[in-house]
Amino acid sequence: MHQIEFTLSGIRKSYGPVQVLAGLSFAVKTNHIVALLGPSGCGKTTLLSIIAGLKQPDQGQVTGVENKPVSYLFQEPRLLDWLTVGENLAFVLRDHIPRAELAKRIDYYLEQMALAAYRDTYPRQLSGGQRQRVAMARALAYPSRLLLMDEPFKSLDIRLKWSLMTRFLQLWTAEPRTVLLVTHDPKEALLLADEVYVLSPKPAVVRSHHQITLPRTARTPDALPLLELEQQITAELIRD
Amino acid sequence: MKASIYKNRLLTVVSVLTLFLVWTLAATLVGKEIILPSPVVAFTQLFRLLTSGGFWRHLGATLGRGLTGFGLSFLAGLCFGLLAGLHPRFKTFFHLWLTVIRSTPTMALILLALIWFKADAVTLFVTFLVVFPLITQNITEGLAQIDPRLKEMARLFRVGFPTILFRMYLPAILPYLATAAAAGLGLTWKVMIGAEVLAYPRWGIGARMDTARTYLQTPEVFAWTIVVIAISLFFDRILTTLIRKRLLYWE
Questions:
Q1: Both B1 and B73 in a single domain?
Q2: pTM score, whole prediction
Q3: Using the beta-carbon criterion (under 8 Å), do A91 and B158 form an inter-chain contact?
Q4: Considering CB atoms only, which of B157, B158, B251 is closest to A124?
């Protein structure tokens, strides 16, 4: 039913004598949210860098992302302090969007992230949660089919995390795109993703794969089927 | 807060008064105007200079030369600094050149320039060689301070080079640029006067100072020195205000 957006086949990567990725293979379907769950330091960020083309794998290949624009949401907001919120969005957009549409697009995504009032504010004047929302507005406003997210909710408290995830899902439902989410938090993965890949500690291989069929509207933190799956995944994550 | 500002101002006034007092005492002890004129004599001479015909022309010539030399050094330093900061190979290649220029005594530069060029060109050439490496180094350093994660972000979002240059690199190095400008301009006046003393252009404060020295008119040497200090302080104040008001607006 779904097309394949991109495929990883046999990705291996070592840093000196330390093997980080030991042959990862999986396919990501178009307009799916796929979560990669793994313990800290298992090479998830390295994998994202390989998909984004920042790093080369020692072996294996990524097919389907060649020369396509890729949007990115990082652990930290990575905003330019000397540009306003609106200008920060314009910074990544102006070379990819016709000039006439720029302001409209920026206003639209800022409004979607409840940031319309902060368009002319400098990042230093915002709270940590607001800054990450700006980063999310930037990632979503960027015209790309593929969005890579590297633990974007990691440094937020539970309420902020929940509100940001809800907002993200609303926007994603309105304009679906393919998302690869890297996280170490099973709950986050289960609330957002269509599929979850559990990775082993370094050197990382795929330990298990789970389809989450429960509709997103029914996914509350206390939904029973999710709690069962969370237990199962947690057990896999802490296994040696 | 207000009390502390008042105290600071008071302290400044006391400091200035003490300086003049020490100067006056020393002049009285020496007792020879030709060695050390008193502040009154020096400032009287300054007033005489201000009302004399050639003053503004000499001042204008030195200012013009200084600002031209500084402007050229700044522009060249900016281009060179950007190239060196963005291309490590370029930096490695020219590192030795810049180190040699910086290590060369200013006097040696002036003497060589005197052999090679005419008076006006000497002052420009020397100022350029002294100020340009300073600007280059500051800009290269500023670029090195930019968070590599921001550079990576720009690369991942495929931001074009002009956008990166004008919206990321230049604003990020603005504080370094300002520091470089302040230090460079301060150095410009020192070097410029030195070069004018030796190159002896028709118009210029340095040349006047040397003439006054030749005729043992020490009060005039002092008067011109006060003028140079005033120039230096004036530009320093302008730049400091600019830096404080405009450069860190996002903080």
A1: no
A2: 0.82
A3: no
A4: B251
